[in-house]
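Input (structure):
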């Protein structure tokens, strides 16, 4: 990865979530659709030994992953200390969850925990231009035959909405799926409408060949 871009991106996300962490759980349910759906889709293809979620935030997905895969080791990684502080309190009773405060791509952060599933949930559209490098890194980190799972914004036909999301560091230009499909063998790729077509989101499962 480009180290300078990665550091800038990490700092941008940390700054953004200093405030957003305080309202995240109260607000994100209203527009981060498909988060439980992507876990269902993971369960359709594998029962993973180790799952890593990149950009785990306050731990919403980690909690649901632990309930769905109680025997799996689940690792949540995020650069935001504020978000992880909330996650730590929320997940204190879940013994199979580990939290790591670090940018993705740092050497040896995962140690011997080579995952068979890496999850990106509403994260890749926020890392520009580093999203491509993160997808490449996921391919390297997964075991042979492992899966990448993504749920994220896809597109909007309304420029005003794309501009609005851009003000919150989110890019919505159908740009993720070509990179995913170019690196992984596609198992599932589906686009869904939100709020009567105001925007679209998608789920993707890809296999490392």
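Output (sequence):
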């Amino acid at each position: 990865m480009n180290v300078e871009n990665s550091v800038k991106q990490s700092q941008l996300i940390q700054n953004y979530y200093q405030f957003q962490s305080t309202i995240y759980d109260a607000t994100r349910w209203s527009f981060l659709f498909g988060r439980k759906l992507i876990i269902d889709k993971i369960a359709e293809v594998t029962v993973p030994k180790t799952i890593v979620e990149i950009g785990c935030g306050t731990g919403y997905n980690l909690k649901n992953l632990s309930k769905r895969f109680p025997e799996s080791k689940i690792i949540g990684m995020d650069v935001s200390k504020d978000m992880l502080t909330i996650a730590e309190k929320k997940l204190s009773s879940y013994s199979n969850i580990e939290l790591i405060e670090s940018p993705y791509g740092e050497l040896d952060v995962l140690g011997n925990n080579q995952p068979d599933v890496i999850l990106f949930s509403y994260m890749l559209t926020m890392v520009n231009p580093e999203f491509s490098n993160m997808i490449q890194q996921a391919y390297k980190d997964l075991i042979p035959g492992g899966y990448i799972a993504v749920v994220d914004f896809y597109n909007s036909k309304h420029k005003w909405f794309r501009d609005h999301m851009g003000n919150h560091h989110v890019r919505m230009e159908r740009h993720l799926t070509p990179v995913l499909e170019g690196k992984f063998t596609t198992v599932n790729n589906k686009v869904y409408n939100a709020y009567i077509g105001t925007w679209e989101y998608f789920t993707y499962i890809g296999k490392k060949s």
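Notes: Strands lie at 50-54, 73-78, 97-101, 117-121, 147-155, 185-194, 199-207. Residues 3-207 form a domain with the Rossmann fold fold (CATH 3.40.50.150).
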